[in-house]
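User: Can you help me understand a structure? I only have the sequence.
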Amino acid sequence: MSDSSKKEDHISDHSIAGASSGFITRFCCQPLDVIKIRFQLQVEPITEHPVSKYHSIIHAFYSISQEEGIRALWKGHVPAQLLSITYGMSQFYSYNLFMKLKDNFSSHNEWVYSAQFIAGANAGLIATVVSYPFDTIRTRLVAQSSNHQVYNGIIHSCSCIMRHESPRVFFYGLLPTALQIAPHTGLQFAFYGLFTDICKKYSHETTNTFYISMISGSAAGLLAKSVVYPFDLTRKRLQIQGFKHGRVGFGTFFECEGFVDCFKMTLKKEGVKGLFKGLVPSQIKAAVTTALHFTAYEQSLVAIEAFRSYVSK
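Assistant: Let's start by predicting it. Here is the structure, written out as tokens:
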């Protein structure tokens, strides 16, 4: 992380910075997330096919805006914000705790990127478990058809799931998510550290850290997301199991019986390309969100440090 975060003695500041980062990133990138989820849940090809609901990113933006209104691009935004704030707070707090533990083993300091990967992977797992119910609610709110709306909001969706299904539903898809998040978050932190060091090495001394964070974050997000994407698609499809009545009008409903079966059914019905449906908007989103995520986090730490210095005067 940045020099400012290394100097920071108040570990709680990382929670505040992480929460701020999650909020800013989610608000800016929610439309791309809505498009990605719609693509992931579409069984039909994402091309100009007679039975396909969405044909491309531009077509999806246009169709959703025309059929459901521009606000639909921020569908599920409130639970998504709760997800992002909770996740960002837990992730950066946990990451810095693990990195502090690493500092106790000075003989391993030369393995800095490996340490960042391990700390990031563990931080991602902790943050995922803590924030996962918000992810399931967000996915269902985004997935439902406007003509067959099942849920009216967060509280209503929670009560419906509790009454008509089971509390276990809030954690549907947790296994593929854990398998995805551990390497994904680990790679994000490791790549971010690597690209930040490269940028600092070859850039001018006066280069603003804001630009370094943006460049390093976007590259890290793009590479990390590409590696683990099939797990992300599987997670979304598992989260809508039992929600067929809310998907009327979106084409064939994808049904499966678990993580492994989801992979098998996707390969059988859609081929290997099916595991990468929605990859392009996901890559765009990953590059943008990771850049914003790390940059907002770093800048928030700078602001917190400046505030503390001002107050202490």
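Now, to help you interpret it: Residues 183 and 296 are 22 Å apart (CA to CA). Residues 2-8 have pLDDT under 50 and may be disordered. Let me know which part you'd like to focus on.
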